[in-house]
Amino acid sequence: MSNLLLQESPMLLIIITLISLLLTYFYKSYIPLIFGILIILVLFYFYRVPQRKCNLSPNSIIAPSDGTIMKIISDPLTKRKTISIFLSPLDVHVQYIPYNGRIKSQIYKKGTFHPAYMFAKSQYNERNTIVIETLKGDISITQIAGMVARRIVSHVKVNNVVKKGDIYGMIKLSSRVDITLPSNVNVLVAEKQRIVGCETVLATFS
User: Among this protein's residues, is 175 annotated catalytic?
Assistant: First the structure.
């Protein structure tokens, strides 16, 4: 298992360490230091990246993140399916590429930070959407910041070639990930189902 804390938030780690040391020195007590260590341990847990074996079947579309499926919506006109996944603070918060392809577009929008599970309000939340062009149709993934999450990370750029199972980004703390699939897929998951990023097969191409 690897960890992204030093890579993604080194300044946060430094600030917590310095504040803990200064308070320990000022109050002549080890309590602030112990509290600081506990916070750092919690952060290491949030930023964990477990080793996973992805489903590499050519027809399978894997889950882009851990979490619980909140909604599955089918557009009556385009027949495209959108699967909304809620990530609690205890879930792994990295995002995976669900299928081989090329980054066709990427759009980042600033916004509010309402709870990610509140669909009416969270439509205005900060978000980042990538569209992956595949040989079997476009797949879009939207990272949506939640009430606690205040930063969305994406390491891909337009025209990057990506592979299924690649880690491409992260939403810090609780959040939501929406994935929209082409019309030519069979969805294999259901609402309220717990899924595991990279391992759970969301759908297969017809």
Answer: yes
